[in-house]
Amino acid sequence: MSSPVRHTRQRSAVSALLAEVEGFHSAQDLHAMLRERGERVGLTTVYRTLQGLADAGEIDVMRPPGGEHLYRRCSEGHHHHLVCRGCGRTVEVAGPAVESWAGRVAAQHGFTDVSHTLEIFGACPSCAG
Amino acid sequence: MSSPVRHTRQRSAVSALLAEVEGFHSAQDLHAMLRERGERVGLTTVYRTLQGLADAGEIDVMRPPGGEHLYRRCSEGHHHHLVCRGCGRTVEVAGPAVESWAGRVAAQHGFTDVSHTLEIFGACPSCAG
DNA sequence: GCGTTTTTGACAATCATTCTCGTTGTCACG
DNA sequence: CGTGACAACGAGAATGATTGTCAAAAACGC
Fold first, then answer.
1. CB < 8 Å from A in window 63-92 of B
2. Are residues A11 and A53 in the same domain?
3. Domain extent at residue A37
4. Which string of b and e fits A61-88 if b means at least 16 CB within 10 Å?
């Protein structure tokens, strides 16, 4: 039942790319970047790899209004994002208070195995004007 | 700049339906229900109406993993949802602490015009076993 | 090397949502 | 009450991201 994760050129390429780029990018976006670099990786593989990484908790997935999934390599551990509506700039924020609040509220209703998603949108200083 | 919202049979139908049903439903779902009731409303119109209501803040939109937008008429004011992964049961929860926290964090980074989305997922008592 | 098993990737399929554009219904005003 | 302007409607086509398919290629253990 354990899937012995094999090391492949494509997987390395996706990981390496994610390590370099800043901010969130869509699967299609990442795929295009790989092609520009000369890496020959299929779109299908990019999707699969990203899903795998997301399942493994190594990258974050965001679903902004607009229908595209955005992926981003980000720091370990649980955190949330503050995203600028204008330029897309992203700031990672930690919210211990929120974590415990979410857990408490869930417990009050008898919910277990709790997770949550939280995103904050706003206009950053540069885009506010 | 003001769009004089006209009162139409279709709009009433969608609103009325939302007032009756419990929980979240997709646009397609609502459209099917309207047809069963004998209301003849186009799918396009359902989408447009839902978008309008969502913009007006009269209904909530949720984007669960799965790609379908779910709409729900819910209580006035800002609140969040605690959703069961198993049966989809939804509980509305208010989190004043979270609201102020989000605002504070955003302000710290110079962000203005802030909004946020928060969803908590878990297993409800019935589904936990 | 060799065989087994996973992974890959081109292409087709899916499916919610959006667009198009001619028709219809509302509303304001005469 | 009539009428004209303009928003709303709706059927079908279009869009576009994501997922499924399956034969060929690559990786790993021996």
1. 63, 65, 82, 84-85, 91
2. yes
3. 1-75
4. bebbeeeebbbbbbeeeeebbbbbbeee
Using the 3D structure, point to which of B60, B75, B90 is the last residue of a domain.
Answer: B75
Q: Do A109 and B118 touch (CB under 8 A)?
A: no
pLDDT at A2: 47
Give the N- to C-terminal CA distance of chain A in Å, as an integer: 55
Statement to judge: residues B93 and B65 lie in one domain: no
Domain count within chain B: 2
pLDDT over threshold 70, residue A109: yes
B15/B46 Cα distance (integer angstroms)? 10
Q: Which of residues 46-65 of B touch strand D (CB under 7 A)?
A: 48-49
What is the reported pTM? 0.74
Cα(A23)–Cα(A25) distance, rounded to whole angstroms?
7
Statement to judge: residues B25 and B67 lie in one domain: yes
